[in-house]
Amino acid sequence: MARMVKPGALSPLYSHLNEHSLVDLSSIRTKLKGSASHFSYPNVTLKRPRNASILPVIRAQTSAEYIPDSKFYKVEAIVRPWRVQKVSSALLKMGIRGVTVSDVRGFGSQGGSTERQGGSEFSEDNFVAKVKMEIVVCKDQVEAVIDKIIEEARTGEIGDGKIFLVPVSDVIRIRTGERGEKAERMTGGRSDRLSSA
């Protein structure tokens, strides 16, 4: 026997459904089997207009200058393999000493088309070989690092790559257990150069 549960009588577990406009609360039913201690999961029916997407609508921040607030950021740059040496040398010259490099494959606006290097074109499959460079820096170093990567990695052709900025909640040095700015700083790095000037 099934009973209808009133929206106000929902347990705290399902109380968030009251606020969601796509949920039809009249369709949530709890089935009693034998005793009150055995409940099944509720059946939820979504209300949506015909021809509407099932996926949720996600809106980006309205400000073009929006950066999530964090002390540290990971700059992930997907660049052409033959530009890595130029980018890493430029980062080293500006005092960025910690860079992680990974070989990756994929496609973007280039669509997996052929890659040009040294005047010749090549393609093995639909994925193009790229290199992902990951750099964790303090908030005040982010724009300088991004500008330097763009300056050194740009060729002006499709396939130059992308840069992603990810907030990092903390940095921990494994050897010493230091956290935060002490763990992020490297002797002779950009922070030391700026503080000694």
Automatic annotation (TrEMBL):
It comes from the Eukaryota. PROSITE patterns: PII_GLNB_CTER, PII_GLNB_DOM. SUPFAM superfamilies: GlnB-like. GO terms for molecular function: ATP binding; enzyme regulator activity. Gene3D superfamilies: 3.30.70.120. InterPro entries: N-reg_PII (IPR002187), N-reg_PII-like_a/b (IPR011322), N-reg_PII/ATP_PRibTrfase_C (IPR015867), N-reg_PII_CS (IPR017918). GO terms for cellular component: chloroplast thylakoid; cytosol. One of its GO terms (biological process) is regulation of nitrogen utilization. Belongs to the P(II) protein family. This is Nitrogen regulatory protein P-II homolog. The lineage of its organism: Eukaryota, Viridiplantae, Streptophyta, Embryophyta, Tracheophyta.
